[in-house]
Amino acid sequence: MSDYDAQPGREPAQRPLSQAQIDADDFDFHAGLSGVAGIVADARPVSEILREVANFASRAIPGVDGVGVTLMQAGDRTTQVQTWAVTAAFVEEIDTAQYEDLDEGPCLTSMRSRRPAVSGSLGSDSRWPHFGGRVARLGVHSVLALPLTVDDRVVGAINAYAYRRDAFGDHAVQLGSQFAGPAAVSVYHAQLLATAREKVARLQRALVSRAVIDQAIGIIRSRSGVSALEAFDRLTRMSQTENVKLHLLAEQMVEAAARRARERRV
Prior knowledge:
alpha+beta; Beta-Lactamase
């Protein structure tokens, strides 16, 4: 059984599980595990991948009424949240309070400690006095937060919520922890692919801007006979004087030259 952060001072009543319940939980767990293992981080947005992981987690972890999956800011060593996806509207409200209003809660705790965090009575949990009271007023009393780790890096977390008290015992924590491993890999790969796509897009934009700037330099040289370096200096001074970004000024200059050429042909 993996180590986890339990609610201080609370000894939940142990409900023995029947063999039929264990078998049903194991069947759902393997169905959710197979689903998350089959996720392909293709051209879809990261938010869509997170929604799939959340849906599979809601099946794999027993006792769940709603699940949220959170992605940390790429390359950030803090617990700053980048995006998240949920399976139910009440989870959206809870996680908005956790991340945006209070900066306090089980997800943030689990990501910082790198251990699952469990609570069976959020309204009386001393670890999150503001968060727990707000969530309890929504009728939600139990949470299981699971960090998503790849090697030594925490990439996010899964937050499983339940209306009833003490919904997540050792069995749920064990299955959730086993599910979190492959889920973390899927989330991490989606994050890497999204970052790579953004870098390629930035490079493409830079190449386009460079080409337009070179065209504007050529226009200045053709009019004045100056060198390429002098033409670039003129262009940068014009950009500063007119308070217009260099590539935008170059685009305007090239478009104006093309427009005059078309008029001459007419």
